């Protein structure tokens, strides 16, 4: 597991994502003095790069892109161009996106040949961390993508939850609650990722240990549009241990036969409680008249 590098993000995200005015490349040839200064200045200058020389970030935490929003952005780019440059890093072949994949996708749809870029020198660790943090700061991730990104920071780079908390500007409880969503079964995670359930619904469903009860409540939320508060109430009811109904002992068939015979003779329900060689006979009556009738019958047997 790789250790976290101190100061790995350099000047920080403020410097990385600062708005840089997009200017067309100058036509005039630079002087010798400007050539000497170019390598140092290049990192803060906008460079136009062919769009097909750019590839998506392999460690992009964002898995889903709203196609309708991409189309809207593409229309805006056709009209006004790209206002904010895409941040990239140099690869052996071409460039990899660090931040701005949505703009790059929209530019492809807008059929741009080249796009304005800021080139940064970043290693794999810095690249992944910036991709996660940038998306979280812009609230571009759904709760499951966010949880997976945080988990990746911990598992891949050996960061503690406290370090992650400071990196993304979220509280420690927020990080803990977000990571808990990954314990949910796939069908519930999918509903959260699609926006059908909120993270609050997900955290409530985690409290149910009975999978059948959890799935039943999940279906109810989707079908009836339950709020988180309503879900919590139902979940607390389901979580209470249910009293087990004691199993009735199967009656001896001989005893059951005698009970039936006595019922026919006396005309009322008769129960025989048999305990080894001992027992009792219960004869039920439902009125004073019926009691007197039974007493007269029993007297004739004496």
- Tell me about the largest β-sheet: 5 strands, mixed
Span between termini: 93 Å
The averaged pLDDT comes out at 78
**H/I helix tally:** 14
What would the CATH topology of the largest domain be?
A: Conserved hypothetical protein from pyrococcus furiosus pfu- 392566-001, ParB domain
General form: rod-shaped
Q: How much of the sequence is in beta strands?
A: 5-15%
Given as residue ranges, the uncertain stretches (5+ residues, pLDDT < 50) are 1-40
User: How do the SSEs run, as a string of H and E?
Assistant: HHEEHEEHEHHHHHHHHHEEH
* Spatial strand sequence of the major β-sheet: 1-5-3-4-2
Kindly provide the radius of gyration, computed on alpha-carbon positions and rounded to a whole number of angstroms: 37 Å
CATH architecture of the largest domain: Alpha-Beta Complex
Can you walk through the features of this model?
The protein is 50% helix and 11% strand. With 302 residues, it is α/β, with parallel strands linked by helices. It has 3 domains: 13-25 and 32-139, Conserved hypothetical protein from pyrococcus furiosus pfu- 392566-001, ParB domain (Alpha-Beta Complex); 184-239, no CATH class; 253-294, no CATH class. Strands 1-5-3-4-2 form a 5-stranded mixed beta sheet. The chain has a two-stranded antiparallel sheet with strand order 6-7. Strand 6 and strand 7 form a beta hairpin. Helix 5 (124-137) runs antiparallel to helix 6. The longest helix has 15 residues, at 143-157. The chain starts with 12 loop residues before the first helix and ends with a helix.
